[in-house]
């Protein structure tokens, strides 16, 4: 493992943004009516003072799901333009919210994009990984909101601050300051809205003494989704299959040195196969997300906000939803929604949802595991994803105004080579052939261009044509698969013309979706050397 980029954080991020702009040959689009789009992390190292006690208290850790795991029904409308919660304005200029901790009022007191200048150097506050032992994460990013997540080992409320770099060294523009109380399991969970589209923000949880920060979590950063009319290149990092045998996940450590607007995790984030109850699931998640000793997850999640789906190992290997112990499934999903910021909407454990980034990309998150009905596999009507999810997926593909439709797919949809891959075809889309064909026929009939599938599960890295003998737009549709931890030797034998890259080794994978050039740049980075093992520019033209 080569050394990480040790430049100051703001310098590192600005350099990477400039690199991406040069790479794509396009300037970033400014959002009218908002502050300048500055990169987070450029505040100086000077000592700081606090503004005093926060006047907001929420209870963190409320899992935004109710009841037991169930197949949800689609509402029939898009879920990409709302924060999923109501917000109430105080009518004043304060950046401090008032929140009851309920989903309908989670600290949202927006006067659009307002901030308060504050003498404060977050990095100068001592990092306390005994009190804040796990990764900090932002998720469910919308144009004006994000869900902030962490964990505390102490029961006292902590201070969540969200800020942008100040105009003067040693100062910040404080955007939100909210006191968050951990739940009974220590989780800190806070929806922050009233933010500005397409902006970078930094955040952290702080323990206080008489109102002054004296200890902090790892500091994180996230970018809000683009405004609905924005069009610019977006860069994402993808990973999957982070088995503990590969800890601390060098590929994820390497990823954290790159620039990306969003982190996409495609499943098997935690391997829970041996866990026997909710307490075991929770403990295993905390071990996977540990921030000490340069854990790759904590490093990668601190660099950008997260969208994710689950796969089988979040529950147990190759589980059958029709026969799995219902209590095990409930414990697995409860711990999943607790441990990471999956969603900002109450959805009864529903994983599938979508997030729009302007006119550039819509990120369509599928659940390819919990709704399967293996008993139907060989019938005329196989169910790989539920009929409600399929109808919703078609609606999003057809009606999305975005240039790229990016599908977080968990398990590959590619028509894999018959030998030796088909011995396990029942574990993927190909095993449910009629429903797979239904989806591809829909894409073809509606002539939906620029559908890009992103997948994990196979413990390989590859770039493929999903249907090498297909016609029309389906023949041009690609899939990009990644492993960030586990390995599969078969990946080394994936060959042209169907596969432009195949590898059994974990890699960092960075993808830039450029709607202006109508191109997708894919980079697989060797985690040991830090050099590109493979890069190519793809287009469906």
TrEMBL record:
- Pfam family of this protein, just one? PhoD
Q: Where does the secretion signal sit in this chain?
A: none
Chain spans, region Disordered: 36-112
InterPro entries on file: Metallo-depent_PP-like, PhoD-like_MPP, PhoD-like_sf, Phospholipid_Metab_Enz
- Per the database record, which ranges form the PhoD-like phosphatase metallophosphatase domain? 237-473
Which Gene3D superfamilies does the record match to this protein?
PhoD-like phosphatase
Which portions of the chain have biased composition (kind: Low complexity)?
A: 41-101
Q: What is this protein called?
A: Alkaline phosphatase D family protein
What species does this protein belong to? Nannocystis radixulma
């Amino acid at each position: 493992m080569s050394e990480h980029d040790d430049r100051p954080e703001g310098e590192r991020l600005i350099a990477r943004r400039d690199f991406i702009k040069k790479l794509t040959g396009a300037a970033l689009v400014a959002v009218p009516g908002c502050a300048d789009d500055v990169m987070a992390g450029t505040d100086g190292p000077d000592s700081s003072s606090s503004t005093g006690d926060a006047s907001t208290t929420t209870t963190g850790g409320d899992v935004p799901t109710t009841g037991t795991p169930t197949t949800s029904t689609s509402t029939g409308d898009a879920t990409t333009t709302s924060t999923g919660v109501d917000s109430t304005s105080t009518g004043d200029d304060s950046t401090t919210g008032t929140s009851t901790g309920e989903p309908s009022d989670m600290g949202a007191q927006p006067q659009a994009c307002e901030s308060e200048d504050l003498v404060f150097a977050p990095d100068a506050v001592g990092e306390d990984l005994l009190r804040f032992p796990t990764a900090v994460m932002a998720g469910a990013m919308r144009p004006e909101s994000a869900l902030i997540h962490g964990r505390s080992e102490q029961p006292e409320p902590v201070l969540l601050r969200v800020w942008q770099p100040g105009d003067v060294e040693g100062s910040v523009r404080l955007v939100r300051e909210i006191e968050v109380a951990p739940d009974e399991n220590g989780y800190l969970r806070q929806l922050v809205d009233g933010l500005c589209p397409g902006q970078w923000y930094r955040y952290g949880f702080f323990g206080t003494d008489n109102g002054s920060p004296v200890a902090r979590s790892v500091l994180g950063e996230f970018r809000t989704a683009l405004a609905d009319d924005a069009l610019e290149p977006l860069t994402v990092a993808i990973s999957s299959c982070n088995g503990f045998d590969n800890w601390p996940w060098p590929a994820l450590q390497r990823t954290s040195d790159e620039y990306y607007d969003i982190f996409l995790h495609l499943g098997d984030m935690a391997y829970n196969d041996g866990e026997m109850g909710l307490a075991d699931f929770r403990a295993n998640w905390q071990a996977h997300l540990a921030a000490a000793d340069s854990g790759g997850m904590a490093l990668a999640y601190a660099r950008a906000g997260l969208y994710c789906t689950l796969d089988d190992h979040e529950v147990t290997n190759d589980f059958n939803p029709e026969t799995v112990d219902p209590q095990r499934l409930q414990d697995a999903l409860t711990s999943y929604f607790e441990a990471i910021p999956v969603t900002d909407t109450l959805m009864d454990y529903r994983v599938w949802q979508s997030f729009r980034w302007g006119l550039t990309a819509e990120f369509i998150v599928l659940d390819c595991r919990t709704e399967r009905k293996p008993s139907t596999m060989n019938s005329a009507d196989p169910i790989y994803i539920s009929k409600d999810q399929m109808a919703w997926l078609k609606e999003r593909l057809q009606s999305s105004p975005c240039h790229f439709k990016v599908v977080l797919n968990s398990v590959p949809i590619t028509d894999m080579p018959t030998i030796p891959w088909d011995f396990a075809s029942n574990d993927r889309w190909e095993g449910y052939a009629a429903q797979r064909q239904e989806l591809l026929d829909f894409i073809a009939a509606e002539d939906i261009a620029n559908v890009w599938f992103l997948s994990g599960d196979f413990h390989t890295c590859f770039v493929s044509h999903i249907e090498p003998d297909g016609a029309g737009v389906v023949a041009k549709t690609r899939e990009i698969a990644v492993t960030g931890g586990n390995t599969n030797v078969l990946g080394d034998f994936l060959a042209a013309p169907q596969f432009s890259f195949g590898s059994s080794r974990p890699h960092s994978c960075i993808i830039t979706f450029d709607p202006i050039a109508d191109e997708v740049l894919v980079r697989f980075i060797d985690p040991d050397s830090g050099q590109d093992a493979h890069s190519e520019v793809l287009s469906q033209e």
